[in-house]
Amino acid sequence: MAAPLPEGVSAEAMSSALDRFARIVGADWVFTEDKITPYEDPYTISNDETEHRPYAAVAPASTEEVQEIVRVANEFGVPLWPVSRGKNFAYGGAAPVMSGTVVLDMNRMNRILEVNEEFGYALVEPGVSYFELYDYIQEKGLKLWIDVPDPGWGSVVGNALDHGIGYTPYGDHFAMQCGMEVVLPNGEVVRTGMGAMPGNNTWQLFKYGYGPYVDGIFSQSNFGVVTKMGIWLMPEPAGYRPYLITFENEDDIETVTERLRPLKVAGVIQNGATVRSLVLDAAITRTKSQYYDGDGPIPPSVAKTMMADLDLGMWNFCGALYGPPPVMDTLWTAIRDSFADIPGVKFYFPEDRRHKVDLLLHRAETMKGVPKLTEFNFLNWDGGGGHVGFSPVSPITGKDAIKQYNMVSSRVREYGFDYMGLLAIGWRDLHHVTVIVYDKTDPDERKKLDELFNILVDEAAAEGYGEYRTHIRYMDRIAKTYSWNDNALWKMHETIKDALDPNGILAPGKSGIWGKNRRKA
Amino acid sequence: MTRILSFAFLAGLLSLAAACGGSSDDAAPEADSAATAETAPAAAEPQTETAPQATMAAAPKPEPGSGADIFAKQCSWCHAPGVDHPGTMQLGATRGEDFAVLEEREDLNADYVKYIVRHGLNAMPPFKPTAITDAELDKLANYLAAAD
């Protein structure tokens, strides 16, 4: 079925706006009707065909074209949903929260404007993928690493703006962002930080400039369209040694997390290390049917077989050492000694692994910033192709780790799914990311997943756990869990929204923020 | 098993032919049935492990803008040889090793390739016309259809 028009927008207004968009970008870069299919959420959860459907897409090639599009959108009241490359697939892809929204596809703005080896940064447009930035650096022979999330085809800008994470010491992508160019909802362009000063040459070197630091309000928000962004890049280290430590028992996650905290807080663990569950890791090289033909989640006896077969544990801690060899040796001694007394623990370097296609060999690449898509073998686990991420945050404590694991895994298994989770160790927190892999072609399974997801959000919130990022379908629900002092923070977001975007044309509903024209009481 | 899967694949192709002639509304359920066919029961034996490709740069560089070049830049991450590529792994598990590596297949036709690129299949998401333009898609589809 055709996508509905956005609420409050007439067919005439939409048609006029699309004509004007075509005059700005060229008719070849406005997509409607059957050309809009690639902008839909390919892993849709909803069974209601009228939900989260884009009406059209428009693809500008320059900041000036973005400005003109935004002005036309204001004139006709047509809402826009900006996406960098639209590869945020566990969270909705390019599809909008509100049906009828026109996708503003930034993919054509894919210039790498500068890579500076001396200072270690890049200035890129939103259409630049990790693959492209990596290839550029390799071709030029620069001694720089990038930091990648699992989808190497994703946007460097888009992932940072959505607070994505990777696996090197530069794994907190938004923390590594420095300086932006942003088109505001009224069409005006601003440069943040030092970029505001004419003739200044520290735009990508010093984040804060002078006055309020505003870059954060353009992340996970709908306050502007980012058209350029600086990102710091890590100099290639003198040495690199990835490792894997496996733990045999489900309950070990409590002790492991307790031991991890001091190591991470003190910087002994240098990178965006992860503790990963058995099925998630097994799924990188195997399918479920190779081990289990029954319905529902795999039973514990099968887990034992998988562990022996793949040299994995119930939990698998992937980390890496960076620096001159004596530094790596010293760090490794401290890390190994921290876990050595846990019964059943095993330590591996890449040369110790039996299989040619293997978790550690795969992670050895991502932990040095080589972009790939190998991780998405987990989509083949059960054959259904769909996936969604549930991503609450907690302190790095054993008590919280085991509590979250028990809460989430028991619910996930109750609904018939395997638990596929990882704990990504941040500076001071754990991102507990559970991927639920489901059959996207089965309406009953989608309904079941939707019910499960809502329960997970509510149960996490009841225990004081909030998600750091979410799928378009749950943005309102999660915004409501950040409700301290009568929703004071979201009221402030709305005040900013109304000041910058009085017509509510930019990304209605992003992160639960709506313009005043569509705000529900 | 092979015969059943081959039949399922043909059914997918036929339904695709129907889909291409109809509106996009009609196409959606047909595409889903093609997807179901590809998820038919997996082979029980473990897949052959192929060592990961050392690097993309090791292979001779295709001519810029050619079908081979577009494949290398857009598709190889999932469809290069070796089970560390999700598309190759999925096709090997569900269709068998002979169908696992797209560039080695002789059964692909250009219209089928174009349809899958724009609509996705199973875990594979569709590609936007800004990522692969219609002109590039023609080259890519002809390259895969001609591959032997």
* Content of β-strand of chain A: 15-25%
The ordered H/E elements of chain B are HHHHHH
The number of helical segments of chain A is 13
Number of helices of chain B: 6
What CATH architecture of the largest domain in chain A do you see?
3-Layer(aba) Sandwich
Helical content class of chain A: 25-40%
Shape of chain B: globular
Number of domains in the coordinates of chain A?
A: 3
Rg of chain A (C-alpha, Å): 23 Å
Number of strands of chain B: 0
Sheet with the most strands of chain B? none
> Which consecutive residue ranges of chain A, at least 5 long each, have pLDDT under 50?
none
Largest sheet of chain A: 8 strands, antiparallel
* Beta-strand share of residues of chain B: under 5%
How many strand segments of chain A?
19
Give a verbal description of the structure.
- The complex is a heterodimer of chains A (521) and B (148).
- Chain A has helices spanning 11-25, 63-76, 130-140, 156-161, 252-265, 278-282, 300-310, 325-339, 359-366, 398-414, 443-462, 475-479, 484-500; strands at 30-32, 56-58, 80-83, 102-105, 112-116, 121-124, 144-145, 177-183, 189-191, 225-232, 234-235, 240-247, 274-277, 315-322, 346-348, 385-390, 393-395, 421-425, 429-439.
- Chain A is an alpha+beta fold.
- In chain A, a hairpin with a 3-residue loop joins β18 and β19.
- The longest helix of chain A has 20 residues, at 443-462.
- Chain B is globular and about 30 Å long.
- Mean pLDDT of chain B is 72; it is low at 1-57.
- Classes of the chains: A alpha+beta (521), B mainly alpha (148).
- Chains A and B meet through β16 of A and α2, α3 and α4 of B.
- Chain A: Its cofactor is FAD.
- Chain A: Residues 50-236 form the FAD-binding PCMH-type domain.
- Chain A: This is Oxidoreductase.
List the helices and strands and how they pair.
The complex is a heterodimer of chains A (521) and B (148).
Chain A: H1 11-25, E1 30-32, E2 56-58, H2 63-76, E3 80-83, E4 102-105, E5 112-116, E6 121-124, H3 130-140, E7 144-145, H4 156-161, E8 177-183, E9 189-191, E10 225-232, E11 234-235, E12 240-247, H5 252-265, E13 274-277, H6 278-282, H7 300-310, E14 315-322, H8 325-339, E15 346-348, H9 359-366, E16 385-390, E17 393-395, H10 398-414, E18 421-425, E19 429-439, H11 443-462, H12 475-479, H13 484-500
Parallel strand pairs in A: 2-4, 3-4
Antiparallel strand pairs in A: 1-2, 5-6, 6-10, 7-11, 8-9, 8-10, 12-14, 12-15, 13-14, 13-18, 16-19, 17-19, 18-19
Chain B: H1 2-21, H2 24-38, H3 67-79, H4 86-95, H5 110-119, H6 134-146
